[in-house]
Amino acid sequence: MKKIIEVDHLVKRFGPLVAVDGISFEVQEGEIFGFLGPNGAGKTTTINILCTLTKPTSGTARLNGFDVTRQQNQVRQSLGLVFQDPSLDIRLTALQNLRFHAFVYSVPRSVVKQRIEEVLRMVELWDRRHEEVRVYSGGMRRRLEIARGLLHHPRVLFLDEPTLGLDPQTRNHIWSYILELRERENITIFLTTHYMDEAEVADRIAIIDYGKIVALDTADALKREVGGDVITLRTLDDDRAMEEIHQRHGIDAKQDREGFYFEVADGEQFIPSLVSTLSTEIRSVSMRRPTLEDVFLKLTGREIRDEAGGEAVMKRQWTMRQAGGRGGRFR
Amino acid sequence: MRNLRAIYIIWYRDLLRFWRDRARLVASFAQPFLFLVIIGTGLSAGMMLLGGESGYSYIQFMFPGIIGMVVFFTAIMGGVSIVWDREFGFLKEVLVAPISRTAVAIGKALGGATIACVQGAVMLVFVPFVGVSISVAQVFLLIPLMFVFAFSMTSLGILIASRIKTMESFQVVMQLLLFPLFFLSPALFPTDRLPSWLGVPVRLNPVSYGVDSLRQSVLAPSEGMPALGITVFGHTMSIAEDVAVLVVFGAVMASLAVWSFRNQE
Questions:
Q1: Chain B residues in contact with A138 (beta carbon < 8 A)
Q2: Closest to A44 measured CA to CA, from A85, A80, A6
Q3: Which of helix, strand or coil describes residue B188?
Q4: Interface predicted TM-score of the whole assembly (ipTM), two decimals
């Protein structure tokens, strides 16, 4: 398989802040590569570097064999982008937006019409092609952006939080397009998200935190790393219960908002014995298989969507805005 | 070739937007209409003819100034519309496309200038009501003059827009720049009797030469009419000299705009 993206010791600083801190990874052609991390972790900055919008402070990145700082036009021609924030001309119709794109990306005139029809039919907007984008709903706009991102047959499609702020139904809809597309075109998809279920779609996932890649593997392998099942317990006296579990089973439980939790290899076997031996009254017990959320928690000590509690993250985002003016998102 | 295509498509998109937004064309009549009808008529009634018996009424005098105002405002806004593109996200689509930023900036300058010319030309519908007569030859002189003026001002707009990141600072810049530049031009008053504190900034203002070139071509001076041109160091500017000033200013602004636009992230 061909390496379509090669990133080597990439660094991006905004003043004193290190947004991307020496990351290296490779993406194979045809792969869905997920970039998972909390807001402000450096996901968008990395994408901006890969698609030539931001210059790296140091390190190199190649896309489709082209260097992102020295061969900008070739890189740009090789990629399609669906941004976190909309980037359509809402005063123009869907058709006009696509024609603009086709022209700018030098799609051969003989195939423009057919390609536009193809992508618009795929996202089910063909019947509304003459309407101004202004009247489109959020989901329709996003679909149109996906259609536009594919119009010039890019080798890599970047999806930066492609379903952020969309309702679940629309999210599913968009995902079915993306997966269908990969089947058909063998296109590489580079996805950033902080939705765990979305990240599950990816063949491999890089977990990024504070500008560093803390893990990179398949979803299953990452979950296996966490260990066994996660049991969450609420009792009348959590401290006493935690102490007893520690003494009897040698397990260190951790406190969270609702109660406390710990991991065991086989939860279904463990719970009955736990319930019968604990001296304090149990108010609730739940068990779940590890998720990417747990993987993230284990690797970083924080919850991924812990935005209110993550003061450090917020502060970091704030600093980014101050320092770069456009750390978190492109301005 | 690729760059020419890029310039073309950026220019075309601006025109397409302009054409789709016909409400703007209609609305653009309102302000100059108020200026001409109220200020023009009011001051004409209260003032003697400029330049004696056979001179111009105030409304005749100010009419080319109002054309200049429309061209100036439209042109600057054309360049500054990049701020909107940034705000609504479309700028990203442009910046990530495989086209050079130089081409984008030039396309934008040409687009803004073209629209400003159309808007300025539309002002000629007022001709019969302000008591000036314009020949076809004058119209053909006026359009390239408007274009040169508009191109330099759109470039200034792009230069500003590539440095402003938010709508708030945009408002401030417009207040601090647009109106002073307009008022410090001979659009609304003649320059020959100004006190030096006002006369000097008027002569330093590039907008003055745009307005002056339009005035000289609309009110083609004939026998017995007073000369209209701005005098600089005792020399009265001709249309060609006004154009020369604008071309130099426009070239500097366009280069700075391209440079600034290329270097933004």
A1: none
A2: A85
A3: coil
A4: 0.87
